Amino acid sequence: QVHVVESGGGLVQPGGSLRLSCAASGSIFSILAVGWYRQAPGNLRDLVASISNDGRTDYADSVKGRFTISRDNAKNPVYLQMNSLRPEDTAVYYCKALVAGAPQGGYWGQGTQVTVSS
């Protein structure tokens, strides 16, 4: 089992930046990839960015060129650097550790609120 904890959310003005962190513990050797998702009120939870074990990254079109997913050499934690933030980026951001055979395909964190507002 893997335990995931997000941190780094907060209130930021439009055009500002935030860096989110996703720290995993437990059976981290079983993690295949890590994804950052977000969910705004009334919306579905959507994938924002992901990074695989071999370092391949993928981004939603809405954040390409503004957000960067990365990790340190130990592959933990995984970061989401968010620049040029817009009000429409406001959401709860969740981290998911993808693990083969796990319930729901992996393990979710509790989420961290990001609010972009002047």
Tell me the β content.
over 45%
Give the total of beta strands.
11
Low-confidence stretches: none
H/E series: EEEEEEEEEEE
Oligomer: single chain
Major sheet? 7 strands, mixed
Global Rg: 14 Å
Please report the distance between the alpha carbons of the first and last residues.
40 Å
What's the average pLDDT? 95
Q: Structural class from helices and strands?
A: mainly beta
Indicate the percent of residues in helices.
Answer: under 10%
Which descriptor suits the 3D outline?
Answer: globular
Q: How many helical stretches?
A: 0
In brief:
This protein is mainly beta and 118 residues long. The chain is 0% helix and 54% strand. The model has no long low-confidence stretch (mean pLDDT 95).
Write a structural description.
The chain contains no helices and eleven strands. The strands form two sheets. Strands 2, 4, 5, 6, 9, 10 and 11 form a seven-stranded mixed β-sheet that branches. It is mainly beta.
Topology:
Layout (H helix, E strand, L loop, with lengths): L1 E6 L2 E3 L5 E9 L4 E9 L6 E7 L4 E3 L7 E5 L6 E5 L8 E9 L6 E3 L3 E5 L2
Based on the model shown, name its key terms.
globular; 118 residues; mainly beta; 7-stranded mixed sheet; 4-stranded antiparallel sheet
